[in-house]
Amino acid sequence: MKRGRTRPLLGVAFAGCLSLAACGGGSGGGTLPNTVVPKDPQPAPGASATASPRPTGSPSVAPSGTPSGSPSPGISPTPLQSPTPVPIGPPTPTPTATPVSTPSPMPTRVATPTPMPTPVATPTPVPTPVATPTPMPTPVSTPTPTPAPTPTPPPSRTMYVGSGQINGADDAFNPHDGNSPTGGQGQVVDNTLTCDTSMSNVYHVHAFLGLYVNGQEIAIPDGVGMDKPGGEFTYQGVPNQTEYATCFYHLHTHDPSGVIHLEDPNPNHVPLTGSVFTLGQLLDVWGITASWSQFGPFSGPVTVYTSGQVSRGGVSPPSVSSRTYTPYTGDLYAMPLYSHEVVWVEVGANNPTLTQLPNIQFYTEW
Predict the structure, then answer these.
(1) How far apart (Å, rounded) are the C-alpha atoms in residues 218 and 168?
(2) Measuring CA to CA, which of 109, 210, 339, 351 is 20 to 30 A from 157?
(3) Quick check: 1 pLDDT over 50?
(4) How far is CA 123 from CA 118, 119, 120, 193, 344, in A?
(5) How many alpha carbons lie under 13 Å from residue 192 in its C-beta half-sphere?
(6) How many Cα atoms occupy the beta-carbon half-sphere of 298 within 13 Å?
(7) Which residues are CB-neighbours of 252 under 8 A, at least 6 positions away?
(8) What are phi and psi of 233, to 5 degrees?
(9) Burial class (CB in 10 A: 0-12, 13-18, 19+), 351
(10) What's the half-sphere exposure (Cβ side, CA atoms, 13 Å) at 146?
(11) How far is CA 118 from CA 112, 114, 115, 123, 125, in A?
């Protein structure tokens, strides 16, 4: 702003103030004492000499009293001194406040968490490759030879004896029936065995003799122990019976069933449960020999089983179980014969085993 243009404004201000003083008087309505009436302002050097005319307006109507501007009587007016103009410099510019930058608030310190250690993934162990072994060539198995099947024993069976049965192949001896020429022909055998014209019932019991040769059952001839036996016929309803002869030894057979009749008119008080005769006496009367390698006309290894050297008679039914059979290894000629004793002789091979031999059921109590 230029200095020359400030002064007229000040003059106007002063004029305004004087007018106010003239108009705003008290009761006298005159000029206030000690009031300095400003002179017309002088034009500033260099300014135009023509002052701005005062405004023309209606004259102020003075209130009752001394008219404004007339000096009061008796009072010498104090000459007004021009006020010393106060040099007015350019207005001090209001200092522009230096904008203070609002400091950014300090961020609240957040405790930095202790970083967790980054878990290190445990690597999955890689399995150690196992070298695939070179396959061995498949050995060609030598087929195991199939063993020969063990023959299944037939179910236990019962063989009936003493009532005309033909147990085995008949007529396998020579002669077919009766004694051999070296056997009893009516003479005394073994110094004690006589041939009697009748049979005794004082001591009368029965044993059994069976024979297998190479797997085949052979029938014991009827008429053994008889001198000049008659032929076979049905006697009292029983078939295949030899009932007639010149005489009868104390050990003899009536049919090919295998039953041996043991009779003694003078047993010397031996009871029916005791033994009076032996297997050897039967063989001597019959006229054949036996050993562990031969039985009569049949040769081969000989095996003998018996139901035991005990009496099994006097029971009903008169049956002997094959479970009672045991091997006999003693003297064949000395083997005692008891009531319902069972004797099996096997010659050669392929014969029944001990458990395959049949039970024996007699036809009489003793």
Answers:
(1) 4
(2) 339
(3) no
(4) 15, 12, 9, 108, 86
(5) 13
(6) 20
(7) 223, 224, 225, 226, 260, 261, 263, 285
(8) -165, 175
(9) buried
(10) 3
(11) 16, 12, 8, 15, 20
Closest CA to 213 of 280, 302, 326: 302
- Please, which residues have CB within 8 angstroms of residue 202's CB and are 6 or more apart in sequence? 263, 264, 265, 266, 267
Task: List pLDDT tens digits, range 319-357.
Answer: 999 999 999 999 999 999 999 999 999 999 999 999 999
Name the token pair of 120.
């290190």
Taking the C-alpha atoms of residue 190 and residue 349, their distance in angstroms, rounded to an integer, is 33
Q: pLDDT tens-digit profile of 20-78?
A: 333 344 444 444 334 344 444 444 444 343 344 443 443 333 334 433 444 444 444 44
CA dihedral over 351, 355, 356, 357, signed as positive or negative: positive
d(CA 212, CA 152): 18
Query: Which tokens belong to 151?
Result: 């023959």
Pairing outcome for strands 359-361 and 158-160: parallel
C-alpha closest to that of 332 among 291, 297, 286: 291
Say if CB 243 and CB 235 are below 8 A apart: yes
